[in-house]
Amino acid sequence: EIELLERKGFPFQLIAMRNPGEAFTHESVKRIQAQPHYLPSSQKGNWIRLLWANGMIVCHHPRGYGRALASAWSKWRRSHSWATLKHLLQAGYLVWRFLPGTGATRLHAHFAHSPTSVAYFAHVISGLPFGFTAHAKDIYTQRPQALQDKLHKADIVITCTQYHQKVLEDLGCRNVHHVY
Question: Rounded CA gap, 141 and 97, in Å?
Fold first, then answer.
């Protein structure tokens, strides 16, 4: 998808949740021009970078960060998952480290679980619109309420089959499209 969109003239900034650490790459991936940037995937050894970036975001985007913090607190109260804090910190890092000067006009996450949580918080902080692509495991392995929250917050949702589209529509999503 990215290779095709690049050939059509769409610029990309790729931000990955973690470095795969593999030498193997598909030929189509080798043709992608955008070089990936990697978020700190764990707090261990990254606290200073994460906290510094988030502190800078608080100073430069206090309202957006305040809204993201309130949303994270609400989400944490429902789930009691520390992954919520991690996603908020990653989003602050993303907005501070990778967005300035790029001319980015939107955020799009691939997979409906953690990447979409990070993209959502980055959206709240930055004000950029966001959407996500949902496949299968990421649709069915999270609490329906958590997925439903993401579906209602995204301005576009893409999935790979009509079956998944119906499942997402049954959860109340009206802006879901299937792309094989």
Answer: 30
Distance between first and last Cα of the chain: 11
pLDDT at 158 over 80: yes
Residue 123 CA: distances (Å) to CA of 61, 137, 174? 12, 24, 20
Contact 164, 107 (CB under 8 A): no
Phi-psi sector, 160: left (phi>0), alpha (psi -120 to 50), beta: alpha
> Hey, is 134 helix, strand or coil?
strand
What's the token pair of residue 178? 């299937």
Between CA 120 and CA 115 the distance in angstroms is 9
pLDDT at 66 over 80: yes
